[in-house]
Amino acid sequence: MARFLGWLGGWCARHGRAVLALWVTLAVAAMGGSLILGSPVSSEVSIPGTDAQRAHDLMRDGFGPGYEPGGTVQLVVYSPDGPLIEEPRKEAVDEAVANIRMQEHVKEVDSPFRQGGIASNLQIGVITVRLEGHDSLKVAENTQRISKAADPARAAGLEVVANDSSTPADKEIKTGPSEVIGVICALLVLIFAFGTLTAALIPIFTALVSVTAGLGVIGLLGHVVDVPKQAGIMATMIGLGVGIDYALFLLSRYRRLLASGLPVQQAVRGAVSSSGGAVVFAGGTVVIALTALMFAGFPLLATLGWITGISVVMAVLTSITLVPALLGLLGHRVNALKVPFLGRRAESSGWAALGAWVARRPWRVLISSVIVLAALAAPALSLKLGPIDDGYGAQGSEPRRAYELMTVGFGPGSTGPLTVVAASSGTITEAAADRLADRIGDLDGVAHVAEPKLNDSERAAMIQVISEYPPGDARAADLVREIRTFDGGGLQVHVGGEVAALTDAADRLIERTPLVIGIVVLLSALLLLLAFRAPVVALKAALMNLVSLGAAFGALAAVFSFGVGSGLVGMDPPVNASFVQTLFFSVPIESYVPLMLFAVLFGLSMDYEVFLLTAVRQSYLKHGDNARAVAEGLGSTGRVITSAALIMVAVFTAFIAYPDSMVKTFGVGLAVAIAVDATLIRGFLVPSTMVLLGRANWWCPRWLDRLLPNLSVEGHDEEPAPAVTAERPKAHVGT
């Protein structure tokens, strides 16, 4: 593979203008196409085989309009000056209802002035709108249009807000200032690392082309598959981080080879054949980890995983083609536009000294590192998982305001009603449905049960149940499970709704998580085995990446579960909270986030592992001294890995400013994990374990050595010959 990558890099360097034009054209065409044709996203969460999915399927069968996903819109009306039932407020609400009935695709409109439509304080009411014949994927647009039709009520001094989490102003995840901040911070790190503006701009330009092309492709895919609304921001976050890092690794290698006296074309081939191979294997581990999410049994998560993987593939492709093209065009001018006071410094002195220091006391370093990492990971044992409802939204946002009004007027459970669907092979009588509703109403935790509704065939009955608990409360999930085990008197009882769907998702993910983790670890270890032909190193590297995950989950638990600084990352506390509550309040983490975070972090952590192991192996093959090779490998990669880590931390930290809670969670987790991974793990834990293992690091049984294909990461052909030769180690390490 190294020979092929060297040829590819040399070809791209010789045809730099053509490669540059091709990538710019691809990025502009993909993004332009997505802007012209649109980038559809889907908020629908289906989990085949679950009870909630069965309930939703039954809801589509004969219950009339508005009972399918995206078919119901609720508007919450609040009168600050008096009861809604008094004039002229009632007249204004009636006018708004009449106006809504005239809107396209509106089939039924329930006025607040009905049983259960107005709160006991008579100041808060709910207008329920059911749609038919509309595009269920355009929930936000439908909600905004219907909300606009309620302007007559607003003109009378009433507050009208949509009780929907998909309104564009508040929940649609778009690119924005965070990307700009992340790119600026990355540019500053690159300028400091290279000392020249020209060199610093190459990774930035490459990453922007990669991300633009990736987002364009993802946008166009929305016309073919259901693309989650989080896909764009996840692809941008990961794509920027790995795109800049991969280009940085290649550029650093090229500048070292150029400084050693190699011609431009040979230096490009050498950089791509060595560091390019590491980029391909590192990117491969990220893609493997993300695509393994398809085994989670959660279609939304699986789609989010492989779509995010598109940005990683784009980053790898631009790194091994566009970067060498730019280097071929620039040649020695890559060092132009030097920045004063940031001249070239020795890259290995400090990190090599650290490597030598660790090599002299490996046991003490290992034990100390384990203690520190265990302390960082300890809070993860108390990680609080659960759905994040609109009560945790940004203060002043429409969904947050609707949530607060519904909670005050109708109780906390009204923001996440349960939909009980009872099915039978025969006819269900109204009396049987009423008896079932009465028995459900007697359960602990049930605040209100609506009148049952039979479908057209009278073989299914639907009952809306309001619990006493908000959607994010674990007791709401317990109530879902209790109703499902309830004796329906001969009827099959299913529970749907948002709370039920999230409960099923959490149960499915808990069941499948060990399988996904096992697949990711084994496949990543296999990829490393193919790369380094060393079983011990491959298995150790795969397991070592789990350590940084512990630190990441510990940080998430500290910030969100314990509330240490949750207010500082932008999570708005409840209304009228004290100053202490503002800084320390607990926020649940969506059940799918840890598994998604595991996949992303495992792949990203493997990047640094591959680059460090590549350098250590190259040194070991030259002289056969394991401790010396560890010190030299750490010295040659320490600065570039640190720079790469700083860039990723800056990019991920910038995304914490996003209003979306899921993005904040990923920003905190990724930033902490990368910082820990590039310092404690790569600087202390990995070197100490490699020193202790000695030659066993590179041991490979003869039978396995014969079976493994030769896919070496390193490319030695383009390297200048070492000044001092040494006897090669006799272990079977492959070449």
Automatic annotation (TrEMBL):
It is found in: Cell membrane. It comes from the Bacteria. Residues 200-329 form the SSD domain. Its main location: membrane. It holds the Pfam family MMPL. It is a multi-pass membrane protein. InterPro entries: MMPL_dom, Mycobact_MmpL, SSD. The chain crosses the membrane at residues 180-197, 204-225, 231-251, 272-298, 304-330, 515-534, 546-571, 591-616, 637-659, 665-685. Keywords: Cell membrane, Membrane, Transmembrane, Transmembrane helix. PANTHER family: MEMBRANE PROTEIN MJ1562-RELATED, MEMBRANE PROTEIN YDFJ. This is MMPL family transporter. It comes from Nonomuraea corallina. The lineage of its organism: Bacteria, Bacillati, Actinomycetota, Actinomycetes, Streptosporangiales.
